[in-house]
Design a protein that fits this description.
Radius of gyration of chain B: 17 Å
Strand content of chain B: under 5%
Largest sheet of chain A: 5 strands, mixed
Shape of chain B: globular
Oligomer: heterodimer
Strand order of the largest sheet of chain B: 1-2
Strand content of chain A: 5-15%
Largest interface: A-B, 29 and 41 residues
Order of helices and strands of chain B: HHHHEEHHHH
Number of helices of chain A: 16
Number of strands of chain B: 2
Distance between the termini of chain A: 120 Å
Number of helices of chain B: 8
Structural class of chain B: mainly alpha
């Protein structure tokens, strides 16, 4: 009757884990029960057979295989190792070189001619920085001051040119379009190719400004070479002004575009210069004679707009992306704004 | 199975952690037979067993710096091996690379009959028979038909001679469960071997 209960404890009995009482009870039962005694004997034999099972033969080179795995490079290292082969290095290196070249070209292309001049003046600076790496700090600072002074002088001259240009354009705005080329050509401030280019730009501004397609972005047309990259959808009959607007937005997707149309452009010019003297904006440049590129805070931007509104009609085009969305759903304004400011004669609006 | 020389292991592990490759090689030499044997009897495939064992030593080497020397190296190494074996068996069950059948088991916690616990067909493997000899073939074959949780405990206790506490750590079970599984595993083996004898 109790055989099943005793057999359930055979393992514990063989392991010596039964209490003394249980062990005595088990041994008494085994004396009386031949079946359980035989089963215990078979169990003992099984355990002995299990303990006696031989270990399988270790394969040859087993440990060497482990060391090979240990010494093998990690998967990520193997992946990186692909870049060591010449047929990967070559195109990657070529691509990297091309990317750097494109970047440099793009920077100079978008910076405008005055940036080129500034760089040129740096290169031509006395006691050139290049090649004299052992200059004392003071001497180096003096050289840098000279470079900055040279750049400032060139910028001042450029602004003079712009002012002259404004006055010339203003005085000639009553004349026929064709006469403008002659006005610029006669000026001693603009010579040769510059004069022709600026005259063409002014002409195009006068002609295209009233078109409703892009009243704010179009007026100051760019040199033809910049427009060559504009065609986007292959429509040949698309108006150039539309193309220009798209181009402007593509190149400066993040800028605020401001256009001031003033009847008194010289006064507007002076007001803007005065504003820039009073307000320490982050960055000022003149990508085109009629255009300011400014980097400023939102407060400075608001101040500028308030100042401009006293001078004439102000059109503002805010960028599509003004900042990341905050948790409360409001857009996060960037700390600094890039602003393109164009100063244009008001009379051109009344044409046509 | 030789006597447990934990002190030797600790010294070897300490040296290996300091970069002594010879010390780790000594540990491999000491445990390679046990680890390959355990993997082989769990997977019934010598190639896979050798691969699992190599992977276990590889992982042990990679993880040496994080190994706390309070624990026994052998316990840690066996644990790695059992985990790898489990993953391999799950892979087999997903890909059905072997003909399997189930053994109906009484209800027991942790012994649910699942695809992962299906047992490979213990068709006589010529290499196995050559390796262990005809006399042990029956026991090996019966072992191969045990459900994996029971087989693990029987192998660790009766074949490799590990104490209950260490088996509990390796299997991540309590000692009571280990004892219960050992008893049940031995009982099932007895039944299978009795049937073979008849």
């Amino acid at each position: 009757m109790n055989c099943a209960r005793y057999r359930d404890q055979f393992s514990l009995y063989l392991e010596g884990e039964l209490t003394a009482d249980r062990k005595a009870e088990m041994e008494n039962h085994l004396k009386d029960c031949a079946a359980c005694s035989a089963e215990l004997k078979a169990m003992r034999k099984l355990v002995a057979e299990l303990k006696g099972l031989p270990q399988p033969v270790v394969p040859d080179g087993f440990r060497q295989g482990v060391w090979n795995r240990i010494n093998a490079p990690a998967p990520w290292a193997r992946l990186l190792g692909v870049f060591d082969s010449w047929f990967v290095k070559l195109p990657v290196g070529a691509l990297a070189t091309a990317a750097v070249a494109l970047l440099v070209i793009n920077v100079f292309h978008s910076a405008g001619p005055e940036m080129m001049d500034m760089n040129k003046s740096r290169l031509e600076a006395p006691a050139s920085v290049a090649g004299k790496t052992d200059l004392a700090e003071k001497e180096h600072l003096n050289v840098m001051d000279a470079v900055v002074e040279e750049a400032s002088r060139k910028q001042g001259k450029l602004k003079e040119n712009i002012g002259q240009f404004r006055r010339t354009m203003q005085s000639s705005s009553d004349k026929k379009e064709g006469s403008q080329r002659g006005d610029f050509a006669g000026s001693d401030l603009f010579t040769g190719r510059e004069a022709v280019m600026e005259a063409e730009m002014a002409k195009e501004a006068v002609v295209s400004a009233p078109k409703p397609a892009a009243p704010a972005l179009q007026p100051v047309a760019e040199p033809a070479k910049r427009r060559t990259a504009v065609p986007l959808d292959g429509k040949d009959d698309e108006d150039d002004s539309v193309r220009n607007e798209v181009s402007e937005r593509q190149r400066w997707p993040e800028v605020d575009y401001v256009c001031l149309r003033s009847a008194d452009l010289p006064a507007a010019e002076q007001a803007v210069v005065q504003f820039l003297k009073e307000v320490p904006v982050q960055e000022v440049s003149w990508p085109l004679p009629t255009r300011y590129s400014l980097t400023m805070t939102s407060e400075q931007f608001d101040l500028l707009i308030a100042r401009l509104k006293k001078l004439g009609e102000v059109e503002i085009q805010q960028p599509a992306f003004e900042g990341r969305m905050k948790a409360d759903g409001k857009k996060e304004q960037p700390e600094l704004k890039r602003v393109i400011l164009d100063l244009l004669p008001a009379k051109t609006l009344e044409k046509d | 199975m030789g006597p447990i020389t934990e002190t030797d292991d600790k010294e070897l592990v300490r040296l290996a952690q300091q970069g002594d490759r010879g010390a780790f090689d000594a540990l491999m030499l000491k445990y390679q037979g046990q680890i390959i044997g355990l993997a082989y009897r769990m997977l019934d495939n010598m190639d896979e067993a050798a691969d699992i064992a190599q992977e276990a030593f590889f992982r042990a080497y990679r993880g040496l710096n994080g190994f706390r020397r309070e624990a026994a190296f052998r316990t840690w190494l066996y644990g790695i091996t059992i985990n790898l074996v489990r993953h391999k068996r799950r892979w087999h069950s997903r890909h059905r690379t072997s003909q399997t059948f189930s053994i109906t088991l009484p209800e027991e916690e942790g012994l649910e009959s699942s695809a992962a616990e299906e047992i490979p067909d213990p068709a006589p493997d010529p290499r196995r028979r050559a390796a262990v000899g005809e006399a042990n073939a029956r026991v090996s074959e019966a072992l191969g038909r045990l459900p994996a949780p029971l087989r693990t405990v029987v192998l660790l206790r009766d074949v490799n001679g590990l104490p209950y506490e260490e088996i509990a750590q390796i299997c991540k079970e309590n000692i009571g469960t280990v004892k219960s599984r050992l008893h049940r595993g031995r009982g099932m083996l007895r039944e299978m071997l009795g049937g073979m004898e008849r």
